Amino acid sequence: MDNTFSSYKIDDRSLIAFIKREIHNLALQLGFTPHRAAETDIIVAELTSNLIKYAGGGELLYKSQQVDGKNEIELYCIDNGVGIDNVAKIMNDGYSTSNTLGEGLGAIKRLSNDFLIYSMRGWGTVQYVKICEKSDIPVVPSVSGFNFSVLNVNYPGEKVCGDGYHVKYTSKGFQIFVGDGLGHGAYAHEAVQIAIKAFRRSTASDSTIILREIHEAVKKSRGLVATIASVDYNSQTWDICGIGNINTRIYRGLENKTYTPYNGIIGHNIPRTLNSTVIPYLKHQIIVMHSDGLKTRWNLNDLVSVIKHNPGIIATSLYKDNIRGTDDATVLVGKIT
Description:
alpha+beta
C-alpha cells in the first residue's frame, strides 16, 4: 500500500461496472469478507450512479490503507453539479429529487464506517467515505491536538507520484514535510522518496537544518522542492521554511497568511542563507500545504463554513476547484484542536 489515491473521471454509466469491480477486488485482496465486499459494491454503485444521474459526471478518488493493523478503503466523490440546499434532509432514506443528489445517501451512511458531505448550491458536492474490514469499527477522533488529511494524486497516466509527504511526531511536537520531485514519473518519485527518508532520519528541530540535510541526501537524484513546518509544544511555535514552489498557508478564523519559500532546487542549488519563519502555534489554526499541481489563487473563506469540516473535506474542496491536471498533485490540510 502507498499513500496515493487512484483517480477516475466518471462521465459515462459504462464506467461504473468497471470501477465497482476494481474496488471490489481490492476489498477482497485486503481481507474483506465477501459480504463486506458486497456492501462496498453498494456504496460505490450509489456514489458513481448519483454522479451520472444528478451531477452530469464527476471524479472518484480511492485508496487503501492500514490503520492500527486493520485494512480500510477511503473514497472521495467530487462533482460540479447543482449542489445541495439541505444536506440533513436528503440523508433521510427514501428522499430523492430530480434536481439534487439524495437517493441512496442514507444507505451509504449506514454501510460505511464514516461518511461526510459538503455541498453548496451552484458549486457542487464533495463526499467522503471510509470502509473498514468490519462495519462496526468505530471512527476514533484524533487525540494528538493535530488532525490532518492528505490528497496525493498522480499525474494522469503515471503509476507513481512525484509528490510526497510525511508527518513525524517527536518528543517536542511534530514536523510536516511536503515535497515535489522535479517533473513527474519514476525519477521524480525517487527524489521525493529519498527526501522523505532523510526527513525521517533527521533529529533536528530547526526546519532550515532539516532542509540542508535533505539537500545533501538527494544530490544524486533529479532534485525537488519542499517545505518543512515544525511545531514545538514547549515554545508553542511553528518553524517554517521552504525551497521552491510548495504553497503554505495558515488560517485562523478569517485571518490567513501565506509563507513564501526561497527560490532554488533541493539537491542542486539552494540559498547559502536560510532563515525560518517562527510564528505562534495556536488552537483553531488550519495549515494548508500543497504542490504546484494546484492553483494558488484560492481562499477558504469563499467556501461557506468549510473550515468547520474535517481536514479531508477541506483538502478535497480545494482540489476540486484548483486542480491543474498537468502534474502530480498533493494537498495537506491540518487542523489544530
